[in-house]
Amino acid sequence: MLNSVILMGRLTADPDYRTTQSGATMARFTLAVDRDYSGQNNERQTDFLDVITWRQRADFVSKYFHKGQLVAVQGSIQVSSYTDREGNKRRSWDIVADQVYFAEGRKDSGGADTRPAHPAQPTPKPTTYQPQPYQGEQQMMDGYTPSPSPYQAVADDDLPF
User: I want to staple 103 with a disulfide (CB 3.0 to 4.6 A). Which of 44, 70, 123, 149 is the partner?
Assistant: First the structure.
């Protein structure tokens, strides 16, 4: 069996961040996801899908994601059954997000992309490689006398080919 979902859409509101009675954190938000095709009036159709994240991912989402932001979500579909106040049986479908990604650059109030080209890291100082001569070879050769070779020198005339 396979239950896998990948979506990209815009948040319809800031994520709703809560802590459960057991102490687990969760964030819930709705994604507006455009369909690939247009309707009869050539208008694009949009689905509004509920997404839930848990624990560290929920902390991350509630801190960095906001209304209108384009995000990508990877997760699975979860179906819940319940009875409403009037006694009617209902079902709801949620996307339980395993991963949530930024899908666009961060924008300032003027609309310009303010994301740095590369993540902020200290600039390494340039270094130049200076090879050092190996001193150990001469020390190994001091006091070394080669042993006599077990092979005798052969003249070219003595070769069989």
Answer: 70
